[in-house]
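Fill-in record for EF-hand domain-containing protein.
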Amino acid sequence: MSESLARGLESGARFRCDGCGNVTRFDVVATTRTRRFHHFDLGGDGRVEEEEILEQTVESVSCRWCGRTDAVQVETSPAGT
């Protein structure tokens, strides 16, 4: 389940609830392992300049409208990008 649902978080894909038709509101519980390049200035302020997702596991996706977790699917977004 988690690998196919993780695709819904990528550009060009989206979630859709087959139960109620929702395509805009979902609660996603995920674990992400990343590699980040942090850049700190001499004053100590920092920001992340690069981030690479090494591993992402989606544990659950539930529809905010109807609450179902068993009807959430991943589809290509209309923009397709």
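KEY FINDING: The helical segments are 2-6.
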